[in-house]
Amino acid sequence: MSKIPTANGIPIPAIAAGSAPENLDDVKKPEKAKDVAPSAPSRFSLKMTAGFWRSLQCIGMGLHYLASPRPPNPAFTKSIPSTISKSKGKFTLHFYTPKKYQDGKKAGKKYPAIVNFHGGGFTLGNATDDARFARFVLETCDALFISVDYRLAPDWPFPIAVDDGADALLYLINHAAEYNIDPTKLATSGFSAGGNIAITCPMRLTAHIKTLSMPLPEHRIRAIATWYPITDYTLSRAERRLTAIRPDQTLPPALTTLFDASYLYPADLDLSDPFLSPSKASDAQLAESIPQDVVFYTCEWDMLLREGEELAKRLGAPPISKNVRYKMIPGVPHGWDKSPDPLKPAANSEVLYKECCETLRDIFKA
């Protein structure tokens, strides 16, 4: 049976046959944002469209949360100011804490922390979207799970989401003692657009640290766990669909156009910027900024499969030579794990969440 693609829990129509170009010769390589959405709607229209999809997403994720076992709620939240971004503002961190966290705090226990970024094309989604994954972090890693409500496009286009991600790390490093976090046992995680941020925010933080007059407290990002990320915006959506194993199961143009037109702004934005397209970063930049351990998942029916697979291979090969644990999940579309099924979690999602968290646990213990 054909599986219905979802976007953050929203069932979406499959791509109609014949809606993609027939061969790669018909596909132009984009270089600037204007090449991706040359006839993009106005920013106001994008905001209205994003609002509509966000309403649908709330319904879909509400159903997603209902399936047993129910995911946890954040123990508390913290609003923090942006310091890295040129666009000043605030965003919120959602803290999920393991059992007996308060007792551990009183005893002076230090916990690992996984800093997470939700998906939604940088345009949709909420920090609570990955609560099912959070449960396994709490139970398997005995770690804090801190999910970042980074600012969304179209109001806040690139690079604001990545800057907020780096700012979240910066805040937790500077306030580790307040939350009983061991700053030498940090990791990032993320899904889809959040998978991109999980990769790029350590790169952005590394660049920011070089501008500081005072060193940061001792810290170490041990790992990245990235799920079906977008990694190369110099590939057009048309090319991605043409090379997808199941183009009928990819996200529809109406949605990907919204995502790209919202986030890729202004028109002269260089799509090869490594904080946008980490696949375009130099070997030296990736070797310096990416932690030694990377857990990388892609989906067989996803239009992002090829670019994710290529980046995973590159990270694991010399001269970068990271420890990459890569898995392609067979027979599923992009975002399959956010299925809006109120009766049961998405097939195999909890097995893979546990597998990922067991790997992170072992990395923290090493």
UniProtKB/TrEMBL annotation:
<dbReference type="InterPro" id="IPR029058">
    <property type="entry name" value="AB_hydrolase_fold"/>
</dbReference>
<keyword id="KW-0378">Hydrolase</keyword>
<dbReference type="GO" id="GO:0016787">
    <property type="term" value="F:hydrolase activity"/>
</dbReference>
<feature type="compositionally biased region" description="Basic and acidic residues">
    <location>
        <begin position="25"/>
        <end position="35"/>
    </location>
</feature>
<protein>
    <submittedName>
        <fullName>Alpha/Beta hydrolase protein</fullName>
    </submittedName>
</protein>
<dbReference type="InterPro" id="IPR013094">
    <property type="entry name" value="AB_hydrolase_3"/>
</dbReference>
<dbReference type="Pfam" id="PF07859">
    <property type="entry name" value="Abhydrolase_3"/>
</dbReference>
<dbReference type="InterPro" id="IPR050300">
    <property type="entry name" value="GDXG_lipolytic_enzyme"/>
</dbReference>
<feature type="region of interest" description="Disordered">
    <location>
        <begin position="15"/>
        <end position="39"/>
    </location>
</feature>
<feature type="domain" description="Alpha/beta hydrolase fold-3">
    <location>
        <begin position="114"/>
        <end position="336"/>
    </location>
</feature>
